[in-house]
Amino acid sequence: MPKRQRMFIAERIIHSVRAEEQNTQLKKAVACLYNDYCTDKDLTVFTQLDFENFYETR
One digit per residue, pLDDT tens: the chain, 58 residues? Predict the structure, then answer.
């Protein structure tokens, strides 16, 4: 197999492993913080404004 193809395959594998690791870490973070976001209203106080109209002043 040509060197260029081997390098391409290696890069794709590395990218896949990194993406999988990042996904795993994000899932762990979500699991750790989920209860906090459900019970601590200080963390979600600004979401009450999500459906209000926003008008920029100039």
Answer: 899 999 999 999 999 999 999 999 999 999 998 988 888 888 777 776 667 677 777 7
The set of residues, in sequence order, having a beta carbon less than 8 Å from that of 37 and lying 6+ positions away, is: 43, 44
Q: In whole angstroms, what is the distance from residue 53 CA to residue 58 CA?
A: 16
Provide the 8-state DSSP code for 55. Answer: -
Helix (H, G, I), strand (E, B) or coil at 24: helix
| 44 contact partners, CB below 8 Å, separation of at least 6 | 37
Instruction: Report the half-sphere exposure of 15 (CA within 13 A, side-chain side).
Output: 6
